[in-house]
Amino acid sequence: MTDTGEEGDEAPLTIAVHEGPSGVRVEFVGDIDLYSVEAAREALKRACAQAAGVGAGFVIDLRRVDFLDSAGLALLVDARRWVPACPFALLVPPTGQPRRVLTLGRFGDFLRIAATPEELAAVAPR
């Protein structure tokens, strides 16, 4: 687990990578913003390499992210360049600020987004 918070930060970002039979899941807890985006980028690059090593994609789990700013959105757009070598999907709660900005930005038009792993399994790859 990685903690990118610095002393005095309101909401540090913690990152955990889980590998299971269905692939790799990168779980973020906290805020993905200008201050934490580089740590998030490095975690996603490592997860992509790990997933590619086992011939799988990975899931970016944003269900415990409270805030996603333009730097976080740019990270997701940038991560699209890794596809198809490393396809990914997003787990995002049905309500909250991250869901609102992803919906407003129409990210669902080019990314697989679901609220639960079960729902994600039913969403066709993009």
Account of the 3D structure:
33% of the residues lie in helices and 29% in strands. It has 126 residues and is of the alpha/beta class. It has a single domain, classed as Transcription Regulator spoIIAA (2-Layer Sandwich), CATH 3.30.750.24. Strands 1-2-3-4-5-6 form a six-stranded mixed β-sheet. The termini are far apart. Residues 5-9 have low confidence and may be disordered.
Topology (SSEs and partners):
Layout: E1 2-3, E2 14-20, E3 23-32, H1 37-53, E4 58-68, H2 70-79, E5 88-91, H3 97-104, E6 112-114, H4 117-122
Parallel strand pairs: 3-4, 4-5, 5-6
Antiparallel strand pairs: 1-2, 2-3
What are the salient characteristics of this protein?
6-stranded mixed sheet; Transcription Regulator spoIIAA; alpha/beta; 126 residues; globular; 33% helix
Query: Uncertain spans, ≥5 residues at pLDDT below 50?
Result: 5-9
Strand order of the largest sheet: 1-2-3-4-5-6
Head-to-tail CA distance between termini: 29 Å
CATH class: Alpha Beta
SS elements, strand count? 6
User: What is the arithmetic mean of pLDDT?
Assistant: 88
Structural class label: alpha/beta
CATH topology: Transcription Regulator spoIIAA
Order of helices and strands: EEEHEHEHEH
- CATH level-four homologous superfamily name: STAS domain
**Rg from alpha-carbon coordinates:** 14 Å
Number of helices: 4
Q: How many structural domains are formed by the residues?
A: 1
Based on the structure, what is the oligomeric state of the protein chains? single chain
* Range of helix content: 25-40%
**CATH architectural type:** 2-Layer Sandwich
Strand content: 25-35%
Report the principal-axis shape: globular
User: Quick one: biggest sheet?
Assistant: 6 strands, mixed
